[in-house]
């Protein structure tokens, strides 16, 4: 039988390449098989994306040279999804595939071997040299255990366990063996969280609706709008149970690794070892291993970050996106700049599954889609078990400042009082400050100039650890910080602004007896530290948990009754059409951490903009009102959800070239259709990042003229001749962002 295949390679091309299959391989080759094949003068690894009998190709067709592994690493449905990503986000198919598959098409993993050691049954103890105390210590340690232990466990007992054990083994006193280890998907809480669940009326109704969609085997997109503490997680678990019972699989997407331990713990208790995790803190080989096991059908539930939407699960029955409004679901770089929500909906279409977008504060886009009937509505309007909403206090920090007469003021007297009160009652406190580091600005008191990153257009943040100033965009780091102003040589350099580290200092100073833990990306380096911090907070070993947006959503702690928002205005004045929406969601979510059971919760919001509509409605927890204000605003400005937008970004080291290339692209575009606005080229809000100047063109296509966004997509695809244009010109890189989440 003659057989041909199309193969995609991890290269920057929109094309796939055709090969013939040698007879010996026809039986074992399928879509998703990895193969070696000649590509130009070299041989490369690629993936079979199509199998066919005939081919319309005049030239000479080459044979593939061989199979890389015995089973396919993709399935047809997933390939269809990758092709859609390539087409929709306008990235070469090879690049789209590379982004999805673990480390450049590689799923190789050889298990690490570890050494085990145990006492030998026979062995003459008198052979031990009495002058070798290390050997004695090891023998003593081993004699207290009746099964082999990891040799590495002796590290704390003697300084060179390998040598000592080898010596003892030579004497016949211990036995050393080797064992293969499998990678562990770290990030679970150590103990799965068991709960007795009985659903209330509202919850049961939601479950009934989801179930009937699960049974229909049709694509069914939902928006579950459930207030904080209404039991959304329990709904996911019940829906997953029903999907798994039908032999199908489940993807749970979470926006933030800090949420993983609690939710994964609940899933683990429900579904045991058929659950795995997928997130950025896993190593390459762990990922490769998990990928392969999923292909083999070993796992039925994957819980993970945005890229988990591409897991090679077969027969997906349910995709859940928790906190669907979060911008971390959007990949900003590298290409493809996809949004996991858009991909999840497409995957749901391909697999005919239920897609459950869920939040207490949906994105305005999903909210609008629900109003328009594009997403089915599910609602949980009450907190579970009759828990009350928190009492919210808004503190005008302008007045506080005057009263205290102290510019370093961080806590209002109200917040201090409330914290004191909770500490006395043995209840817990969550403090939100959405900026990391110590002080975001180092400023000269004489001339006002600030320390800027030499590579980016942002101020450097002072970090206490290492006594350094750092750039949060490019990682530039200088230690120690300058003691003199570059501009006027004054030595009155002042740290200003408030980061989490500074709040931490002040909390420690003000409440010296409290147990305080900070959680932000500087302190939470690994999945393990995150889960252990959360476990400690859960056990009451931490009184005050302080952090960035990392701790603002999703977390469920019974004894946390006070939430303090140190500066609610952070991000409010960024020149981006989504700035207000984000701040509202953050405040609302953070407030939702307080008082989730019997005890009444309280929230203290500190602001300098008391009359701002975002702060006003967030503090009243009045979502509907704010969303209506927001919709009106978006409509009058022709922004989503009333238009489709796309952004083309130009970046390069030479300012002039960036300017000239972006202008050249603008003039080369065809005439815009009616309903399309093109803005720019203009400098981005952050004009320079990593020494690259940045300009952008923004395209806005009104939905009244372009309901599905197809017109805009076609305009960009054809107008930009993406294939050619997106190659670097005069050192200027051109990137396209379809449905960008921000225009900064
Ligand atoms: P959300 O995700 O909506 O903020 P959770 O799913 O975390 O809310 O639920 C809040 C708390 O109430 C959790 O501790 C959860 O286990 C509990 N809970 C919710 N629904 C039930 C139920 N039907 N039976 C028992 N406990 C529930
Ligand atoms: Zn100065
Ligand atoms: Zn920088």
Structure description:
The relative contact order is 0.08. The chain is built from 20 helices and 30 strands. It is globular and about 85 Å long. By secondary structure, it is of the alpha/beta class. The two termini are 56 Å apart. The model has no long low-confidence stretch (mean pLDDT 87). Helix 5 packs parallel to helix 6 (232-245), helix 6 packs parallel to helix 7 and helix 15 (579-591) runs parallel beside helix 16 (613-619). The strands form seven sheets. Strands 11-12-10-13-14-9-15 form a seven-stranded parallel β-sheet, with helices on both faces. Strands 16-26-25-17-24-23 form a six-stranded parallel β-sheet, sandwiched between helices. The chain is 30% helix and 23% strand. It has five domains: 3-100, GIY-YIG endonuclease (3-Layer(aba) Sandwich); 112-181, Arc Repressor Mutant, subunit A (Orthogonal Bundle), CATH 1.10.10; 201-386, 3-Layer(aba) Sandwich (Rossmann fold); 391-439 and 497-632, P-loop containing nucleotide triphosphate hydrolases (Rossmann fold); 642-738, 2-Layer Sandwich (Alpha-Beta Plaits), CATH 3.30.70. Bound molecules: adenosine-5'-diphosphate (ADP) and zinc ion (2 copies). The site of one zinc ion has 7 residues, from loops.
Compute the number of strand runs: 30
Under the CATH scheme, the architecture of the largest domain is: 3-Layer(aba) Sandwich
Percentage of residues assigned to helices: 25-40%
The number of distinct helices, counting runs of at least 4 residues, comes to 20
User: Tell me about the biggest sheet?
Assistant: 7 strands, parallel
Name the shape in a single word: globular
Distance, first to last CA: 56 Å
Rg from alpha-carbon coordinates: 29 Å
What is the total number of structural domains? 5
Q: Uncertain runs with pLDDT below 50, 5 residues or more?
A: none
């Amino acid at each position: 039988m003659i057989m041909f295949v199309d193969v995609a390679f991890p290269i920057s091309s929109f094309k796939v390449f055709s090969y013939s299959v040698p007879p010996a391989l026809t039986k074992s080759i399928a879509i998703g098989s990895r193969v070696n094949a000649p590509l130009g003068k070299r041989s490369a690894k690629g993936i079979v994306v199509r199998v066919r009998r005939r081919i319309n190709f005049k030239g000479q067709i080459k044979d593939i040279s061989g199979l890389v592994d015995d089973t396919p690493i993709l399935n047809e449905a997933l390939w269809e999804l990758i092709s859609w990503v390539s087409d929709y986000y306008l990235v070469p198919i090879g690049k789209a595939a590379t982004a999805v598959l673990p480390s450049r098409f590689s799923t190789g993993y050889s298990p690490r071997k570890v050494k085990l050691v145990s006492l030998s049954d026979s062995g003459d103890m008198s052979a031990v040299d009495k002058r070798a105390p290390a050997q004695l210590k090891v023998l003593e340690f081993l004699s207290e255990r009746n099964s082999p232990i990891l040799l590495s466990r002796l590290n704390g007992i003697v300084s060179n366990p390998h040598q000592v054990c080898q010596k003892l083994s030579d004497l016949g006193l211990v036995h050393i063996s080797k064992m293969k280890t499998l990678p562990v998907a770290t990030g679970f809480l150590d103990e799965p969280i068991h709960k007795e669940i009985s659903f209330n009326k509202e919850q049961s109704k939601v479950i009934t609706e989801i179930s009937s969609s699960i049974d229909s085997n049709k694509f069914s997109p939902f928006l579950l709008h459930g207030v904080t503490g209404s039991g959304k997680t329990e709904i996911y678990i019940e829906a997953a149970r029903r999907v798994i019972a039908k032999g199908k699989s489940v993807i749970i997407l979470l926006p933030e690794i800090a949420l993983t331990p609690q939710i994964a713990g609940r899933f683990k208790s429900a579904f045991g070892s058929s659950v795995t995790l997928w997130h950025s803190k896993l190593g390459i080989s762990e990922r490769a291993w998990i990928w392969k096991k999923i292909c083999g059908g070993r796992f039925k539930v994957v819980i993970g970050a945005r890229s988990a939407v591409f897991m090679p699960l077969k027969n997906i029955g349910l995709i859940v996106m928790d906190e669907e409004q979060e911008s971390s679901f959007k990949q900003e770089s590298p290409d493809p700049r996809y949004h996991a929500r858009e991909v999840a909906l497409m995957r749901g279409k391909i697999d005919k599954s239920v897609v459950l977008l869920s939040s207490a504060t949906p994105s305005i886009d999903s909210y609008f889609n629900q109003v328009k009937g594009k997403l089915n509505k599910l609602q949980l309007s009450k907190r579970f078990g009759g828990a009350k909403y928190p009492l919210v206090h808004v503190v005008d920090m302008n007045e506080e400042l005057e009263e205290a007469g102290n510019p370093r003021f961080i806590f209002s007297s109200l917040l201090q009082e409330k914290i004191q009160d909770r500490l006395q009652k043995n209840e817990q406190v969550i403090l939100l400050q959405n900026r990391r580091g110590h002080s975001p600005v180092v400023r000269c008191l004489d001339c006002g100039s600030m320390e800027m990153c030499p590579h980016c257009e942002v101020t450097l943040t002072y970090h206490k650890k290492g006594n350094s100033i750092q750039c949060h965009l490019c990682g530039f780091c200088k230690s120690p910080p300058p003691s003199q102003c570059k501009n006027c040589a004054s030595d009155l350099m002042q740290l200003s602004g408030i980061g989490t580290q500074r709040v931490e200092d002040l909390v420690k100073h003000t409440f010296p007896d409290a147990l305080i833990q900070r959680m932000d990306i500087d302190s939470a380096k690994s999945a393990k530290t995150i889960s252990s911090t959360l476990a400690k907070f859960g056990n009451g070993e931490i009184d005050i948990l302080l952090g960035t947006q990392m701790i603002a959503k999703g977390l469920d702690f019974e004894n946390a009754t006070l939430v303090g928002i140190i500066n609610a205005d952070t991000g409010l004045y960024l020149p981006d059409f989504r700035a207000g929406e984000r701040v509202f969601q953050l405040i609302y979510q953070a407030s939702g951490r307080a008082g989730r059971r019997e005890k009444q919760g309280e929230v203290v919001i500190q602001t300098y903009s008391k009359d701002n509509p975002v702060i006003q409605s967030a503090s009243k927890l009045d979502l509907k009102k704010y969303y209506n204000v927001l919709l009106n605003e978006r409509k009058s400005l022709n922004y989503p959800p009333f238009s489709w937008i796309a952004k083309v970004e130009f970046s390069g080291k030479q300012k002039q070239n960036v300017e000239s290339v972006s202008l050249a692209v603008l003039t080369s575009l065809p005439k815009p259709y009616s309903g399309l606005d093109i803005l720019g080229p203009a400098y981005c809000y952050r004009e320079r990042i990593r020494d690259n100047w940045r300009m952008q063109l923004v395209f806005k296509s009104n939905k009244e003229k372009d309901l599905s966004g197809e017109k805009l997509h076609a305009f960009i695809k054809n107008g930009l001749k993406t294939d050619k244009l997106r190659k670097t010109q005069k050192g200027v890189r051109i990137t396209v962002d379809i449905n960008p989440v921000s225009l900064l």
